[in-house]
Amino acid sequence: MKKDIPTYEIFIDENEDSFVSAVALVDKPAIEKNFFAFNEHTKLQFSYDDERQELIGPAMIPDIEIYRKEQNTGAEYNVFFSKETIRQIAQVFFKKNFANNTNISHTDIPAHSYIFQSYIVDDDKGIKSPKGIDVPDGSWIVGMKVTDNTVWQDIKSGKLKGFSVEGLFQFSDSQVKHDKSTTDEDLIAILKKFNSLYSKPVF
User: Fold this and answer.
1) What positions does the domain Phage-like element PBSX protein XkdF occupy (predicted)?
2) Residue 118, in any domain of the structure
3) How many structural domains are present in the chain?
4) pLDDT tens digits for range 41-92
């Protein structure tokens, strides 16, 4: 049975130091979509057995409700990103030169990788999601090059399955969806607790 908990829209404001600062390789991506790993043997001029070690997949998907639970208080709620916010996040990410900011499971362990492809699925412009990955209009797709063999083995073995973004976010208290039994005061209290406890939420 689905819990009746509040849902908040998340957004960023680079002037207020809120943005996505890194993309992590994780075993359970919050958006529940895995990446594709390319392990194609290509015959190049200087190498005849060279793995591409490339990944492609969704980093963010619009309007998906992502469950959150505060460790200290137990407060439960869902959050989501609009496709307009996701487009802004992708633009600011590259504007701030964060393409090399990657890690393993939101830790200090480097992923030895970098993002070299990025686009927003845009039906109006005919920009589709990668073949075999079904995501809606407004999703952020990234391609990543992995330069470390150990990390690549973890990907090939299925230990790492998808992308997950991390950064500093803001909540829109003017666009909160909630049940009538939840008062505005309750929502504001939860938002304040979240912002004070989580300086770097991950999704």
Assistant:
1) 78-168
2) yes
3) 1
4) 433 232 223 478 899 999 999 999 888 887 788 888 888 999 999 999 999 9
Q: Are 58 and 49 in contact (CB under 8 A)?
A: no
Q: Any residues with CB less than 8 A from the CB of 67 and at least 6 apart, and which?
A: 76, 78
C-alpha distances in Å from residue 9, one per residue of 18, 62, 83, 192: 14, 11, 11, 15
Helix (H) or strand (E) holding 9: strand 7-11
CA 104 to chain centre: 13
| C-alpha dist (Å) from residue 129 to 28, 30, 143, 201 | 20, 18, 12, 26
Per-residue tokens: 46: 């200087």
Mean pLDDT value of segment 11-20 = 81
pTM, two decimal places: 0.79
> Residue 141: pLDDT above 80?
yes
HSE-up of residue 11 (Cα within 13 Å, Cβ side): 14
104 lies in a domain? yes
Rounded to an integer, the average pLDDT of 130-134 is 85
For residues 151 and 144, give the distance between their C-alpha atoms in angstroms, rounded to a whole number. 12
Angular region, 132: left φ>0, alpha ψ -120 to 50, beta rest:
left
Range of the structural domain that residue 89 is part of: 14-63+82-167
188 occurs within a structural domain: no
Q: How far apart are CA 131 and CA 116, in angstroms?
A: 18
